[in-house]
Each structure stands twice: as C-alpha cells, then as structure tokens.
Write a structure and sequence with these properties.
The complex is a heterodimer.
Chain A: H1 36-43, E1 47-51, E2 58-59, E3 75-79, E4 82-93, E5 102-111, E6 118-120, E7 136-141, E8 152-157, H2 161-172
Antiparallel strand pairs in A: 1-2, 1-3, 4-5, 4-7, 5-6, 7-8
Chain B: E1 4-11, H1 22-37, E2 46-50, H2 53-56, E3 75-79, H3 83-95, E4 102-108, H4 115-120, H5 136-151, H6 155-171, H7 186-191, E5 194-197, E6 199-200, E7 210-218, H8 219-225, E8 230-239, H9 253-266, H10 271-274, E9 277-279, H11 285-294, H12 321-324, H13 331-344, E10 357-364, E11 370-377
The structure holds zinc ion (ZN).
Zinc ion binds at residues 52, 54-55, 57, 66, 68-69, 71 of chain A.
C-alpha cells in the first residue's frame, strides 16, 4: 500500500476502536468483448485505438463510452508505436520489504494518434528527473505476449530531434 | 433566481486528531448553526448531509448520523460529495417551495483512516487502481506539471499561493493549527517534504478532522429569522470526465462552465469588477491559480500575477482556504461560511474591506473534476 500520510499522533482522551470493512477484493464486471480486438492486436505487437464516429476522438487505452457524444465508439484505428509524455510526476512509495520510500515515476503518456493519455511505465529505475513534457517514447514490447496491456512492458525514451533543432537555432542566433 | 438566505452557521475547529466521536462533532456543528439562527430543531423541514461511506467506514453512513445531525423524523438525504454540493441540494429544496428551512452539514475524521490510500479506491479498477500510485498527491503533481509547462509558470510562483494561504490561516482562529504559519517563506514551502514531485507538503492541503453546518431559508422567512441574511443569488455546477487522460489539466473547463452559469443567474458581467472576495476549495496551490483563471479573474496562465492578498484587488482565500484547513466533506460548506462572514463583516482579523459580493466554491474528484460555484450577496449595496 502507498503510505504517503503524515504520522498520526497518539490519542489521549477518545478511544479509537478498530473496525474492519473488507475491501481487499471485490468483484466487478468488465466487458472484455468490447476491447478484445485491442487485446488481440497487443498479442501481435500492434496498437489500436477506439475512435468515436461522431467526434473523431481516438482513445488509447480504448474508452468504452465517448463522454462528449454519449455514444459507444466502435471504429478501431491503428496507432504508431511512438508516444510522448503529456505530464508527469515522481512520487515516493514504500513496498513491503523496503526500509524507506523509493521514488517512482508517474507518467501520463499520449500514444501518437490518440487524443487521450494513460499512466504507463518507463524502464525500471529510470530517473524521473530526466523526464520532461513532450519527451518522445517508443513502446518496448514484452517477450512473451499474453494479449493484455502488460504486453507493453514499458515505454523507452528515444532520441528527441527537437533538442538538436533547438540547439542549432540557438547557435544560429 | 429567487433568493435563498443563509441564516445560521457553525464551524467546529478543525484538528489533526479531534478528541470527539463523529456524532459529537456533527452535533456541535448542527446545534451551533441552529443556535446562531435562534431556531429549534422542530423548525427544520429538511436535513442534507455530506459524508463519504469510505471515510466513515460504513455503508449508507448517514443512517448512523440521524440523531447527531438533527434529522430525527425529518425529511433527510445525503450527498456523497463535497459539502458545497449538499448546500446546492438544500438550496433546490428551498426553491421547490416544499421546504422552509434546510440544515446542511458535512463532516469527516481523516485521523481514523489513511486519506491518500482511501483515494486510491476512488480509481478506475481496470487501468488506474493496479498502478496503486494515483492519489490526491500524484494527481495534483500531474496537474501542476501540466500547468507549469503550458504557461511557463515557475514553482516559486506556485509556492507563493501556499505562503499566502498559510499566512491568512494564521489570522483565522478557525483554521487548522498546523496550517497557521505566519512567518512562512517560499523557501520553507519548497524545502518541505516532497509528496509527489513537484508538489511539496506545504503547497498541498492536508486532511484534518472537522465538521461544519449552515441553515438555509427562503427569502421571506430568512428576513424574519435574522437582520442581515447573506443571499445565494447564483449557482452553477459542472462535471468533467473521470479519466485525467481525457482532460487538459492546465485549465479547468468545468470550473469555467460552472462559473458562467452562476454569473448568469446572479447578473454578473465582469467578475473582476463585480466580485469583492473569493473563497476557493483548492487541493493544491497550483489549483487555486487554475480555478481563479477559470473564474475569469485573469487571463489563463496569469493567475500568479493576481493581487489576491487580503488587502489586494481581488482577495482569494482570506480565511486560508483549503490549505488553511482541509476537512473532507465539510470544506465546501466552510468556504461558503467564510464568504458569508466576509460579507457580514464578521471575519475579524482577516476581513476584506467593504465586501458585499463573494464567490464560494466547492469541488470533488481528482484535479477538481467536479466544480460548484456559488455567488453570495449581502444587502449593503
Ligand atoms: Zn464522440
């Protein structure tokens, strides 16, 4: 569990009584049929997004309902395997066995060709201080693909041509 | 819009670990609001509460607060959102003509649960929950980064909002003790514990225990109860998509739309001229800027250049705002009460001069997903 809270003070007067509300597992329905096509493509190492026919918004991962049009998008469009960082953070969390909190990048990634972003992984141990908005990335596929979103093992940072261009521009000035 | 007046209110002093049970805390808020108005419980026709089942550790948690909240044998309902949304519910009931007096209260005790962990349970179970890292702090960090990047705003400019709100909180006896920091500097804010880069602890609202309540009455009745009711003359609310990835986090479209609706009802053409004071529910310092911009108080990206001190051109959060005391479920009601106090001239120590028209705001969801804006007016002009 993520423990970011400040430390609770000891109570003095009121008694704190422990109660249980079992929430660790519960069931919910997710209609996999609606995104099967996407999962099949992932198994093959391909990316598809779901496009709303009325407003042309493309979502990846596929959203089952278009909030703008209140319609169920049903047109699959192919997406490139490149992406960009939309926004990001680095947070601190302590996993079981850790002696102190470790930094974790939290990165909102926009797959090229999609209008939406999602939180996905960078290479393990990647220094989030190197991340910036607009940073180009490329999908690193998993070795054994299972036909789910874990087939995108992580997003690998790739060379950013805009950095060279900016340097050139500055040099010319 | 027909006018509804605020005739009574009460704030329980927010504390890190309040030495009261939940029903006691709610009782003091409800009883205090009725006493302010000089009303009996029997006078009430409807009671609306704002609580959260997850926070309270009980399902349908309002069935346990009937006695404390004054709802015994009354028409009663609950909003699982911010207190400001409960006020809107009470307002609608008054405007329906079927209810004369509405008691609205909100409360929670974050000292009994891990707030940031509970917020993880608010996440979409398929895509966001397995990551286990999306909570208030990381959501604020994603929003703050998007805002800074789009408009070229520095982290120091955002820290200044934290400085202002902590200093204002120090003047407000009903702010959270831990947030009352009269000598705080930008450096203190930037050097405080990093919650989620670039959001530090002192630029974020940290939850504490608290309860607040207010009483609403339709125009005719309100004038009979107290001499100077503050009127709700406009309200607007608007909801965004759940998925942060569908939104541009550097702006707040829902706040803009909510404000436009409220302005229209209240007949406000230029909020910069017509509004004297603003009480915002900001989860994080950058959010105050985004929300102020969405209110039309300045251009987008220029929020940090607003003169928003207590004696500034457009004072924002003279009470210290949500950074000054974040009591989940109650804080939206607190914003309304603080705006009312400004209009009544009761905000001793942090009074804005000649305040007669105010904005009070509530919200719910990551990165201000759902916003509600109230326009409040006194009778001075
Ligand atoms: Zn659409």
């Amino acid at each position: 569990m993520v423990r970011l809270e400040y430390i609770k003070k000891q109570y003095t007067r009121t008694r704190r009584v422990h109660g249980n509300w079992y929430l660790a597992s519960y069931q919910y329905k997710f209609n996999v049929k609606r995104i099967n096509q996407c999962l099949e493509h992932l198994r093959k190492g391909e990316l598809v997004g779901l496009k709303c026919r009325s407003c042309n918004t493309v979502s990846f991962p596929p959203r089952l309902i278009c909030p703008k049009c209140l319609k169920m998008p049903d047109e699959w469009v192919h997406l490139r395997d490149t992406a960009t960082v939309a926004t990001f953070s680095g947070t601190y969390a302590q996993e079981a066995g850790d002696t102190e909190p470790r930094p974790y990048p939290v990165v909102a990634i926009r797959q090229d060709g999609s209008d939406t972003t999602w939180l996905a992984n960078l290479p393990e141990g990647y220094d989030f201080f190197k991340v910036y908005v607009g940073m180009p990335l490329k999908v690193k596929w998993a070795e054994d693909k299972k036909g789910d979103f874990s087939d995108i093992e992580y997003y690998e940072p790739i060379e950013d041509p805009s950095i060279e261009m900016n340097k050139k521009e500055e040099a010319e000035k | 819009m027909e006018k509804v007046g605020i005739v009574g209110y009460y704030q329980v002093k927010p504390e890190t670990d309040i030495q009261m049970s939940r029903p006691e805390m709610i009782f003091y808020a409800a009883r205090g609001a009725l006493d302010y108005a000089g009303l009996k419980r029997d006078d009430l026709t409807t009671v609306i509460s704002a609580t959260n089942d997850y926070y309270d550790g009980k399902t349908i948690s309002n069935c346990f607060t009937v006695e404390a909240g004054g709802a015994y044998l009354k028409d009663e309902s609950k909003v699982e959102m911010d207190g400001a949304h409960a006020v809107n519910y009470g307002l609608m009931r008054c405007l329906s003509g079927h209810h004369k007096l509405a008691l609205v209260w909100g409360a929670s005790q974050p000292s009994t649960f891990y707030y940031s962990c509970i917020r993880v349970l608010e996440n979409d179970p398929t895509f966001d929950r397995p990551i286990n890292l999306l909570n208030d702090y990381t959501a604020a960090a994603l929003g703050m980064r998007a805002y800074m990047n789009k408009f070229g705003v520095s982290v120091e400019d955002i820290a200044k909002v934290g400085v202002k709100n902590h200093k204002n909180a120090a003047k407000n006896p009903l702010a959270w003790n831990e947030a009352q920091l009269p000598d705080i500097t930008v450096e203190d804010i930037l050097n405080s514990e990093m919650l989620s880069n670039p959001v530090t602890k002192l630029m974020h609202a940290l939850p504490c225990d608290g309860a607040t309540a207010l009483v609403l009455a339709p125009e005719g009745l309100a004038k009979k109860i107290i001499d100077d009711p503050v009127w709700i003359t406009g309200v607007g609310l608007c909801q965004e998509t759940y998925y942060l990835g569908d939104r541009d986090l550097s702006i707040s479209v829902s706040m803009e739309k909510a404000a436009q609706k409220a302005y229209k009802l209240a007949g406000i053409n230029d909020p910069r001229k017509d509004i004297d004071v603003v009480e915002l529910f900001e989860h994080s310092a950058y959010e105050e800027l985004v929300l102020a911009e969405a209110l039309g108080l300045c251009e987008k990206g220029k929020g940090s250049s607003l003169s928003s001190e207590i004696n500034g051109e457009i004072p924002i959060n003279p009470s210290g705002g949500n950074i000054g005391a974040f009591t989940p479920c109650a804080t939206g009601i607190t914003r309304i009460i603080e705006a009312v106090k400004q209009i009544q001239g009761e905000a001793k120590g942090y009074q804005v001069k000649d305040a007669n028209r105010a904005i009070a705001h509530g919200q719910i969801g990551f990165c201000a997903q759902n916003n509600i804006v109230f326009i409040l007016e006194g009778g001075k002009r």
